[in-house]
Amino acid sequence: MTKKSIFIYIAASIAILVPVPGRFVYGLTMIMELILLMTVGTSVQFLIKKTGYEKINTVATLFTLLCVTILYRNIIAALQSEIALTLGFCFYLPAFSSFMIGFMFSENDLPPVKKLLANLITTFKFSLFALFFFLVRDVFGFGTFTFFGKNHNIFEHVVLGEDRTTPFSFLASLPGGLFLAAIILFGFILVRKRFYIIHRFTANSKKGGTEK
Fold first, then answer.
1. What are the backbone angles phi and psi of residue 14, rounded to the nearest 5°?
2. Among 17, 39, 41, 40, which residue's Cα sits nearest to residue 90?
3. Which residue of 11, 18, 55, 112 could cross-link 46, Cys pair, CB 3.0 to 4.6 Å?
């Protein structure tokens, strides 16, 4: 994980994850939107560059992201009205987040397909981080597991009793969300560094064995 990725993850956690209610189904809804926006936005950029109108690239891409966000929100409202009402303005957070802008408008000369794959891989990595974040808040903060339900209501299954969730109810609050995001991010960075050290040690061992 590079320094750029770490800073973007921190900014994205504060801007996208923490303001959203700490239930798994709400997090999943936001992640689905993030993947959709990244796919559509990156594809629109290629079309604009191919037509030669690169001067309007930024404005056209952001306008497209806004339109897709409105369309996505209306679809969710038609299928899951409770989720749409609960999230409200949160739907617009991913479109103009540092995560989206930082990776979508990054300067590189990758071919269209490779850049799309690179952006999607980065988005999927962040998605794993985000879904784990919402799962922990849902299970330990609220004592439940939530998912898409029927009749415009969310599905809610009680995992822990009220007496067991009380010590962890702090995770359901905004400060608790910030604390949890910092802990998970620190864990990801620590694991990444450990794997990097092991990889370097293995590579140096093979190199030393070859020289002998």
1. -70, -40
2. 17
3. 112
Q: How far is C-alpha 141 from the chain's CA centre? A: 20
* Exposure of 209 in the CB half-sphere (CA atoms within 13 A): 6
pTM value? 0.80
Q: pLDDT tens for residues 161-181?
A: 766 666 778 888 888 888 888
H or E segment to which residue 69 belongs: helix 57-79
> Where do we find the tokens 């030393």?
208
| Amino acid identity for residue 82 in this structure | E
Nearest to 39 by CA among 6, 12, 59, 61: 61
SS3 157: strand
CB 99 within 8 A of CB 126: yes
